[in-house]
Amino acid sequence: MHELGIVFYIIRDVKQVAEENHVKHVSAVVMDIGEVSTVIPSYLTDCWRWAADKEDLLRGCQLKVNTIAAVTHCDGCGRDYPTVQHGKTCPHCGSSQTWLLRGNEVEIKEIEVSETLNNVS
Amino acid sequence: MDEVKIIEIKKSVFADNEQDAASLRKELKDKGVYLLNLMSSPGSGKTTTLIRTLNLLKDKLRIAVMEADIDSDVDAVKVKEATGVDSIQLHTGGMCHLDAEMTRQGLDNLDLARTDLVILENVGNLVCPAEFDTGAVRNAMILSVPEGDDKPLKYPLMFSVCDLVLVNKTDVLPYFDFSLERCRENVRLRNPRARVIPICAKTGEGVDAFADWLVDEVENWKNC
């Protein structure tokens, strides 16, 4: 449900980077989205299409999503395990003294810009 | 062949909001204004709790309320009528949460020089508001008994960002399979620092403990 809000944030950031680099059109935006970030990639790309096409800079621009697997570290036994499968409780030793190592990312990784369209060097 | 140039960004989408929130918090500190962000699911009793609390505190502190909703001004009107406390309505325009910039726009409509405490009633939702720092000094949430004691397991982020959890509607405990002890344990798993206060906004039971917590918090914020 908050994907549209996140899309507005992405657009704001991409616009700023485009301006700094004198880019007139962006052909793709690449996102790193963690498995447990609460962002649903299909909702994000749907919201993206709706909002991005309203901007000259981003018309037709593709949103590519890299999914980052969630990994939790256990302080009890020192091992790591996949978060989505086991949640907060360590499958190795049963401890709940665990914390998320990665998988919470909502990051703009990079943007792709066509050189012929933009005449950039 | 069209050459594609890659421009690396590597930046969290929330980074700008977090900066806005931090600078808003600093401004509030300089002005001696305490902002509480109150969150919960729809129907947990945020507005009723607020009315009870405001009636206990309005002679001790100078308070203002910001009601955030997708639409309508029923909450702002209700709070003002029931307590006489200044209350403004913010509309999120379809968005499911408030961010620091929207919060700042709301605060611009208040007389902060004559305010000690601002309570922001966020949009009723356990997912999105947890993602966006509003610039508040503390986050509090209400979990009502009919929602179940397993909510901290289902919405971990909300519980991990809250400093205070009010367990509301304790008068209906006998009719629900809700254990306060289990609830405390589930909150502790997500956030060992969070304080849990059981309340009943309808009868007023426990609301004084919340009011006392707020008075201490405002005092500390102004003096430390």
Structure in words:
The complex is a heterodimer of chains A (121) and B (224). With 121 residues, chain A is of the alpha+beta class. Chain A has a single domain, classed as 2-Layer Sandwich (hypothetical protein PF0899 fold), CATH 3.30.2320.80. Helices cover 31% and strands 29% of the residues of chain A. Chain A has a 3-stranded mixed sheet with strand order 2-1-6. In chain A, strands 4-3-5 form a 3-stranded antiparallel sheet. In chain A, a hairpin with a 5-residue loop joins strand 3 and strand 4. In chain A, helix 1 (3-20) packs across helix 2. The longest helix of chain A is centred in the first third of the chain and has 18 residues, at 3-20. Chain A is elongated, with a radius of gyration of 18 Å. The termini of chain A are far apart. Chain B is α/β, with parallel strands linked by helices and 224 residues long. Chain B has one domain (18-223): P-loop containing nucleotide triphosphate hydrolases (Rossmann fold). Helices cover 38% and strands 22% of the residues of chain B. Chain B is built from 8 helices and 8 strands, in the order βαβαβαβαββααβαβα. Chain B has a 7-stranded parallel sheet with strand order 4-3-5-2-6-7-8, sandwiched between helices. In chain B, strand 7, helix 7 (180-190) and strand 8 (195-198) form a beta-alpha-beta unit.
Radius of gyration of chain A: 18 Å
Q: Quickly give the structural class of chain B.
A: alpha/beta
The CATH class label of chain A is: Alpha Beta
Quaternary form: heterodimer
Q: Which second-level CATH architecture of chain A applies? A: 2-Layer Sandwich
H/E series of chain B: EHEHEHEHEEHHEHEH
Q: How many β-strand runs of chain A?
A: 6
Distance between the termini of chain A: 39 Å
- Tell me the CATH architecture of chain B: 3-Layer(aba) Sandwich
SSE ordering of chain A: HEHEEEHEEH
| Strand residues, percent of chain A | 25-35%
Biggest sheet architecture of chain B: 7 strands, parallel
